[in-house]
Design a protein that fits this description.
InterPro entries: Cobalamin_biosynth_CobD/CbiB. Pathway: Cofactor biosynthesis; adenosylcobalamin biosynthesis. One of its GO terms (molecular function) is threonine-phosphate decarboxylase activity. This protein is mostly helical. It has one domain (2-200, 287-319). The chain has 13 helices and no strands. The protein has helices at 2-15, 23-39, 44-72, 74-88, 95-106, 110-121, 130-156, 161-177, 191-200, 202-215, 218-228, 235-248, 290-319. Helix 2 (23-39) packs across helix 8 (161-177), helix 3 runs antiparallel to helix 4 and helix 6 (110-121) runs parallel beside helix 7 (130-156). The protein is globular, with a radius of gyration of 20 Å. The chain starts with a helix and ends with a helix.
């Protein structure tokens, strides 16, 4: 049932993408804002309490409805699974930005590409060159796909899958909403949300990196993952982007700015003893607009790999 739930939800999303500003997401954002207003008294324990309360408020009803559907019948549980996967997946939420940037770069319209990238990433793209636009678009696409697709896949496979999928997507949102805005960056309130998502995403991030390696250039992906993942401020982002860049043969990211200029590896950033003797820079070439097409291929191959493994797992469970 799990395999067909994900497959049907993916097909529905391809035909009818769920907008990023849909009412369900809008309500969760409003709820998160209210929880922050109610609980934020300036201490980390208040953020921990707010996080737990919000998770219980969303996960418990989801799990209870799933349990009720199981008792009603297979069809009811299947429909509920499809609904939850459709709501938690975000394969097409932001793909229009990526596709439009790719088309703009292919036609030489750098101005439009900069505008679209600024809308998508909320960065200042005024003076960005084509290579820099390509690089940031690729990085954003890889991270977004992981958090909106592969992470959901992993947690949906857990017991009480629908509730776990909701937990993953909501925890990812809280880690951003309670830490990234200017008025929240130095607050203790969001510290627990960030730590909780780090551990929730610990295994999925590594499985995503492994999938990129399997469907891409395995040797370069593993080499980049092992030696250069520490160049990113975020350990999770570093693992995914180093493996993804190595799999495609594309240089991604910088140690200090996350994706604004390519810099050689420096001994102050990475211990030279951890690198292979012949290596002084990550494998790959500087990003070009062609890297965006490579990203599309890598992501789809990784999706097919996940679905194939899920099918094998479903068959094994059914036979057993």
């Amino acid at each position: 049932m799990t395999f067909f739930s994900i497959l049907l939800a993916l097909l529905i999303e391809q035909l009818k993408p769920l907008r990023a500003d849909n009412p369900v997401y809008a309500w969760i954002k409003y709820f998160a804002t209210r929880m922050e207003a109610w609980f934020n008294a300036g201490q980390a324990r208040h953020g921990r309490l707010a996080w737990c309360c919000m998770m219980l408020a969303l996960m418990v009803p989801t799990a209870l409805i799933y349990w009720l559907c199981l008792h009603i019948g297979f069809a009811a549980a299947f429909i509920w699974n499809v609904v939850i996967v459709y709501l938690t997946l975000g394969f097409r939420h932001y793909s229009h930005y990526f596709t439009s940037i790719q088309l703009a770069l292919n036609t030489g319209d750098e101005t439009t590409a900069r505008t679209l990238l600024a809308e998508w990433t909320k960065q200042d793209t005024t003076n960005m060159e084509v290579g820099e636009i390509s690089r940031i678009a690729v990085e954003k696409a890889l991270i977004t796909t992981h958090r909106n697709v592969f992470g959901v896949f992993f947690w949906f496979l857990m017991p009480i899958g629908p509730a776990c999928a909701v937990m993953y997507r909501v925890s990812e949102y809280l880690a951003r909403a309670w830490n990234e805005p200017d008025h929240m960056r130095n607050e203790n309130f969001g510290r627990f949300a960030a730590q909780a998502f780090y551990w929730i995403d610990w295994i999925p991030a590594r499985l995503t990196a492994a999938a990129f390696a399997v469907v891409g250039n395995f040797e370069d992906a593993i080499f980049a993952w092992r030696n250069f993942a520490g160049r990113w401020k975020s350990e999770t982002d570093g693992i995914i982007l180093s493996a993804g860049g190595g799999a495609m043969g594309v240089l991604l990211g910088t140690p200090d700015e996350n994706a604004s200029t390519i810099l050689p590896v420096d001994a102050s950033i990475v211990d030279a003893s951890e690198l292979d003797e012949e290596s002084d820079a990550p494998p790959g070439d500087a990003p070009t607009p062609r890297a965006l097409q490579s990203t599309v291929g890598l992501v789809w191959r990784a999706v097919l790999l996940w679905m194939f493994l899920l099918l094998l797992l479903s068959i094994a469970i059914w036979v057993a």
